[in-house]
């Protein structure tokens, strides 16, 4: 029931916000804040309450109700450690997103917070849905409000960006839906029970060729969302044009749904095809790491720059997922969390700078350390996080991923490690161009306001905490990850036996 | 009394200082900033003395103080703990870091007095000391990597301390990026170590190295070389040496602490720490020795040509670290660490003294514009002289002689040594003496060219004097075998570092010492002859086109910068520039463009002419019927 | 009796050809009437006497009268014929005729490729037609009735004399054009 | 009145008439003539229906013809009304003048 509450609190908050917005411009933000905080508290109690039993079984909570029985569709939500982490992230970033839009959004606030909360609800649903139809439903739920968010409250080129975002995700989402239907019918034909339930479909035996095509359907949707190298081009536009909170949620949450989908659906549903595709996928990941980093270096628009660093970091994620061992997968989970924090913080910073200087062009910045030492320090921390400085969360993530990948494919690690160098190049460029060097503008720029300081302090503390004490996160995700690895091993031996029999 | 539970205080004190200064430093008075900044390091040094004293006094063989603070992270069979461990090797490093660090901090309280960002300076310095201490106290390679990257960050922050000048920022970026290349290789090295040893704990690796790896196998060589790459980056050895001279853009105390005494020797520490792996691979050791020898020669020749006093010192640092690598390569582990310690004393001294001079001369770096400071700044002169004789390794009376002589001797006689390495090292000694003399003469003798501002105060001179004393006398704790055979330092290190294996049938040590002394004195004479007695000869040398070209080549640091710029930086920037708008996006804009074109094409058929539509119908019918006929 | 069929067919073709080539609308209409009568003959020969009657009464009678009314109403006389003569050039009709010829050739090929068979057309009496019409096709008849109703109302509505009414977009466009012209004049 | 013709011949006749109707529609610029040609095409298809009905001795062919007839009547009445309107508004029956609906 709590899981349903998590979603309904957001959806209800959204509706109330849009109604209250008719009345007073300032009500919606308070309502949104309250809704997100309630959600965050719920997740925290959930986490605290199940903290001890985490190690025992993978699934912590389960809610199931018939939805459209004639098609075998159930309203099935469940949470394991992985989902729990991402849910916590969702609500944490949700609170921050509300806080950072506090003064930025002045027009149509009701509808704005409606969209914001609706996206969060969609994301939360995606992280919990255990019915493929329901999953697809939430997948689309988060898409449309995001389209509005970019298209209405974005900056100059917002319509183009919104369309691009919509078309990329929608088209790839349709492919996924086709794959879901394919899976549904294959399962139905084989067993006689037509169902969209995740736990039933996991056991579907699919011939390899079909599995490959179905997996491609899923993979393309997730790869676009993640984004994986050739599908990344919507990201810089969408990130660049979205309002600050939109960028934060895009980078922090929407990208994570892609990785979550791969971990939750692609790998367990199509183990053999995944194994077959592991090396090409990892290569794509590495290409993304390097390409994203080089692209990030060349950008002059701060938000686009940060967007490309996301491409680079998400390259690590897909590389890690397809390494298919515990080290790499734990690294992936860490990367999801820490990337959300570090990149989110960089986007927030870009938004704050834009509020002050009215530009995103880093060529017009420079020497901002002296008027804004606090922002400088925080910016430095997150630039360092994004280049993987030990002691900050991203290092743990990237180290584990690379260590895991090294066990699987040593050469890929060598190539990916070059990403460490490139990430240093672009991160230092960010710091150098914005904070160091001579001042370019003589406007007075105020340092952090208390609200901004609160946001940034929360993020900084989190990222340092994750860098030094990542064990709670690792332990929480552990049952899910070990289960996944065990599953793959079982599949491995099974398929091995099969081939031996043949 | 077992003092290991206080071990954590050594790095924690600087870290505490960093936090105080970083969070509230802006609002603190200068006195308080100085007190916290320098005080934390002094306290840390004090704790080091206490803990180290306890460690030494109660030391049974092979004792190691370890203290596990918490588990960093644990995944599957991989486990990394935040564990500090103090053994004799790390004790030497901790001693140097905290002791010299404390002196430099005291010096800085006066040196940086006028600076706007007093608190930021000390915060960064404290963070640096913390990271460096973590680096040397780490019991596993991952924690060491944390310190390793931490010092890189602080080096970046401090090189770019005066950030408003773009060149400083660029130098900082270059330093970080170049060392990062080594670090990336080192990270891969860590992965290899973990894959083969299943652990990153140094002592476990050391204990099982011979079980894990076949001697001289390809894997152990590759592992060693990858780790070495990290060391090369940090220690500014060939081919990653280009960042260090530019790093002189930072304040002089920074150069003294980070880019002379401590951080740049992290590579030496790493190789010494992982000597078990290096011992298993002859190839790797040969590579270390060759890189060391090549670097010392190259950097020495470059130092001969520089006019910026700090750049001379920077190249001499590279060169001296080259000696350390040479020693490590031939298997003379203790000699390398000994030279590290002595070098830390005299090079910190030289940098601090140079800083004092530069400060007094209104930020004049050019030695040719100095001169005649002998009488005007006596304290600085005498202390600088002490450092210089140590650097030049003047026989018997300087600490540098004892440490460098050992390396020269081992470079022939040790197991991995060879006459060629020795010859290179000897040539290096000659060059060192020459450029040291040149620097001394240009700075302190001759006519004064620049007006002197204020003279350094007590807080600056006292550290200079202390370091000068150490630069002269610290060498006596380790005397050559042939006179005295007083080997306190190497005995001290033997629990961790093995004795140097020697070749058989080698010539007498006396001969080597004589030759080394002659080289030094010859170098001094050369410098004296050309720069003091016959300065006109320099001008005549300038006429020679070949020499001028050679001079330019050496002056540019053997054109490495230009080479890397051509080969790496420019192609990278070029690719980044031309692809700014993302070529893959063309794929998608291409699709949408094609759709648009097709739309235009089709909308042209929507002409509004009824007859045209009917023609379309007819053609369609023709096609359909045609298809039916075909089938 | 085949001869009657072929004659009627030939008349229909020739009359139709004349319809599409005449310049004067009234002539064309008259030829069309002839063609329709030939059709009626064909229907009769095919045993569909009811259809033949309807063809004569409704088509040749009612519909053609409508046409003639309109032609008269619009006063399409000599000028129209002149205009038609100008329009009907070789290059205008050659292409479409080729296309139609190709279409017909394809049709021919398709029809002739099937088995040739002669048959005697069965006589289908009006009674059978009526029974079928009001039993199986009752819905169709109702729909046809509605269609005719709608056509009557529509024709009455459209045929009213109105002022020039433009769609609002076209109107704005026109206004803009006028403004532009005014500007140019100024 | 018994004829025995091959079904093909009748269908071909219908096809020929239909083709002529098409030609008429395409080559004429005057709407009145186009409407006439449309009538020809309708009749041709009616002929095909009737022929088919008589071939199988079924009334359906003629039923279809009746429907075609009804449709033709409706079409002609609307069409002629439109022609009147067009003529009033444009003072011309040239179809090429009525290109307002281009895309």
From TrEMBL, chain A:
Signal peptide: none annotated. Keywords: Membrane, Transmembrane, Transmembrane helix. Residues 129-418 form the NADH:quinone oxidoreductase/Mrp antiporter transmembrane domain. The chain crosses the membrane at residues 30-50, 71-99, 111-139, 160-186, 206-224, 245-266, 278-298, 305-324, 336-357, 378-404, 410-432, 453-470. It is found in: Endomembrane system; Membrane. It is a multi-pass membrane protein. NCBIfam families: NDH_I_M, PRK05846.1-1. Belongs to the complex I subunit 4 family. This is NADH-quinone oxidoreductase subunit M.
From TrEMBL, chain B:
It is found in: Endomembrane system; Membrane. Residues 72-122 form the NADH-Ubiquinone oxidoreductase (complex I) chain 5 N-terminal domain. Residues 138-428 form the NADH:quinone oxidoreductase/Mrp antiporter transmembrane domain. Gene3D superfamilies: 1.20.5.2700. It comes from the Bacteria. It is a multi-pass membrane protein. Pfam families: Proton_antipo_M, Proton_antipo_N. The chain crosses the membrane at residues 6-25, 32-56, 88-107, 119-138, 144-163, 184-206, 212-233, 254-272, 284-305, 312-334, 340-358, 379-401, 421-441, 462-479, 510-532, 610-630. Keywords: Membrane, Transmembrane, Transmembrane helix. InterPro entries: NADHpl_OxRdtase_5_subgr (IPR018393), ND/Mrp_TM (IPR001750), NU5C-like (IPR003945), Proton_antipo_N (IPR001516). This is NADH-quinone oxidoreductase subunit L. It comes from Dyadobacter endophyticus. The lineage of its organism: Bacteria, Pseudomonadati, Bacteroidota, Cytophagia, Cytophagales.
TrEMBL record, chain C:
Keywords: Cell membrane, Membrane, NAD, Quinone, Transmembrane, Transmembrane helix. InterPro entries: NADH_UbQ/plastoQ_OxRdtase_su6 (IPR001457), Nuo/plastoQ_OxRdtase_6_NuoJ (IPR042106). Its EC number is 7.1.1.-. It is a multi-pass membrane protein. The chain crosses the membrane at residues 6-21, 28-50, 56-76, 97-117, 137-158. It is found in: Cell membrane. Belongs to the complex I subunit 6 family. NDH-1 shuttles electrons from NADH, via FMN and iron-sulfur (Fe-S) centers, to quinones in the respiratory chain. Couples the redox reaction to proton translocation (for every two electrons transferred, four hydrogen ions are translocated across the cytoplasmic membrane), and thus conserves the redox energy in a proton gradient. This is NADH-quinone oxidoreductase subunit J. It comes from Dyadobacter endophyticus.
From TrEMBL, chain D:
It catalyses: a quinone + NADH + 5 H(+)(in) = a quinol + NAD(+) + 4 H(+)(out). Gene3D superfamilies: 1.10.287.3510. Signal peptide: none annotated. Pfam families: Oxidored_q2. It is found in: Cell membrane; Membrane. It is a multi-pass membrane protein. Its EC number is 7.1.1.-. The chain crosses the membrane at residues 6-27, 32-52, 64-84. Keywords: Cell membrane, Membrane, NAD, Quinone, Translocase, Transmembrane, Transmembrane helix, Transport. InterPro entries: NADH_UbQ_OxRdtase_chain4L/K (IPR001133), NUOK/Mnh_C1-like (IPR039428). NDH-1 is composed of 14 different subunits. Subunits NuoA, H, J, K, L, M, N constitute the membrane sector of the complex. Belongs to the complex I subunit 4L family. NDH-1 shuttles electrons from NADH, via FMN and iron-sulfur (Fe-S) centers, to quinones in the respiratory chain. The immediate electron acceptor for the enzyme in this species is believed to be a menaquinone. Couples the redox reaction to proton translocation (for every two electrons transferred, four hydrogen ions are translocated across the cytoplasmic membrane), and thus conserves the redox energy in a proton gradient. This is NADH-quinone oxidoreductase subunit K. It comes from Dyadobacter endophyticus.
